[in-house]
Amino acid sequence: MAVSREGVDPPPGEPEPSLGQLLTATTQDLSELLRAEVELAKLELKNEAATAAKAGAMLGAAGVLGHLTLLLLLFAAAWGLAVVMPTGFAFLIVAVVVGIVAFVVYTVGRNRMKAATPIAPQTARTLKEDVQWAKQLKN
Fold first, then answer.
1. Computed from CA positions of residues 17, 23, 28, 29, in that sequence, does the dihedral angle turn out positive or negative?
2. Position 79 in a domain
3. Cross-strand partners of 4
4. Domain extent for 63
5. How far is CA 17 from CA 66, 95, 117, in A?
6. pTM of the entire predicted model
7. Least enclosed by CB within 10 Å: which of 13, 57, 60, 88?
8. Interatomic CA distance for residues 96 and 103, integer angstroms
9. Does the pLDDT of residue 132 top 80, yes or no?
10. Which among 101, 102, 81, 99 has a CA at the least distance from the CA of 90?
11. Residues 61-106: tens digit of each pLDDT
């Protein structure tokens, strides 16, 4: 088949394809293209999900290890204080300090949560306007 500026020319001696044949061929090609695109999207999503799962597992492991590190540092601080005072009081002091830090972090987090804007504030505003508009139509 020769290709011209207008498209694909049929071989010499063969009739030109009808409009129906051209539409059928185009539909089949488009269908194959869409199937291939969907298959490619599935493969890409599968690969991205696997990458995200591995990254999530690594972040989880890092969180556990960070927690253990903090715990060991707190034990070391308590035993370090136990050198200059009774062990029970040393651990009590470390526990009170950690409790105060936890309370401060909780309070700051709670205040930030209260100050956070609701999800999609523009959508909430337009929904309220739609309700008002519908009430006006009803009356």
1. positive
2. yes
3. 7
4. 20-117
5. 70, 86, 62
6. 0.52
7. 13
8. 10
9. yes
10. 81
11. 999 999 999 999 999 999 999 999 999 999 999 999 999 999 999 9
Residue 132 falls within a domain, yes or no?
A: no
In whole angstroms, what is the distance from residue 20 CA to residue 27 CA? 10
If pLDDT is split at 50, 70 and 90, which confidence band does 8 have? low
Q: Which residues lie below 8 Å from residue 108, measured CB to CB, with a gap of 6+?
A: none
Angle of helix 87-115 versus helix 19-81 axis, rounded to 10: 150
Our count of domains for the chain comes to: 1
More confident residue, 88 or 114: 88
Are the C-beta atoms of 42 and 54 separated by less than 8 Å?
A: no
- DSSP 3-state of 121: helix
Tokens 């599968």 appear where? 46
Residues 6+ apart with CB under 8 A from 16: 10
Instruction: Let me know if residue 127 belongs to a domain.
Output: no
Please check whether residue 106 lies inside any domain of the structure: yes
Question: What are the tokens at 37?
Answer: 């695109």
